[in-house]
Amino acid sequence: MALHETFNLGGDPELGLQAEVAALNSQFEDATAQEILLAAIRHQFAGGIAMVSSFGADSAVLLHMVAQIDPSTPVLFIDTVKLFPATILYRDQLIEQLGLTDVRTFKPAREDLAETDPAGMLWMSDTDACCHIRKVVPLARALTGFEAWISGRKRFQSKTRSALDAFEIDEGRVKVNPLADWTAADILDYAKTHELPTHPLVAQGYPSIGCMPCTSKVAPGEDPRAGRWRGQDKTECGIHWPIHGKEIDGSGT
Ligand code: SF4
Q1: Which fold has domain 31-248?
Q2: Largest Cα–Cα distance of the chain, in whole Å?
Q3: Whose CA is nearest to atom 4 of ligand 1?
Q4: pTM for the full model?
């Protein structure tokens, strides 16, 4: 039984979920990322949790942890059809190397593209609308049937993430952020220790990798995210808007 069923606060599911998340954050306050993942995948949300990954610059670390616990954990990958070919190759490399057995790729609906972005150039005029039909809507479809999902977001990535908890509520689901308190150095150390392959574009000057038209190289000393939607106010794709305001990216990379 999920905790929110235990916390039957007057039969209000939202209150029950809030109580569940508060209890989990208290229980796992000093837990490691692996302990949080183990509890979420094996116990708390067993059979009802998926990881969302962009297979971007930092993704290998969390994917490796999930694979160590259960390589059959569903991993949801949103292919906007605007990604770098290198990202698709990297996805396939990680699937093979980590032994992931249930990576599911979701693309934007043909009818949405035909209606809203028939020429495939919407990113030039309205990046929010483009991200909506290519990322937000497909992710909502991908998450259907899951009660919780795992995100790779970290506090150090942006001001809006500076108070990120390990467990939070998003659109009626629990979102698990096992790396919330990790630093960039922690990520690098873990990847080095476990000899994880890096996204090939990192070495070419792309420390943060999204869609091809909206990602540019970053100069030494620049913010690692400076190459995402360069020259625009936009800093995120919209996946986390309901609870955190404007953020960076759905998968935490
Ligand atoms: Fe479209 Fe750019 Fe958003 Fe990708 S990142 S979905 S190309 S606006």
Answers
A1: Rossmann fold (3.40.50)
A2: 55
A3: 211
A4: 0.89
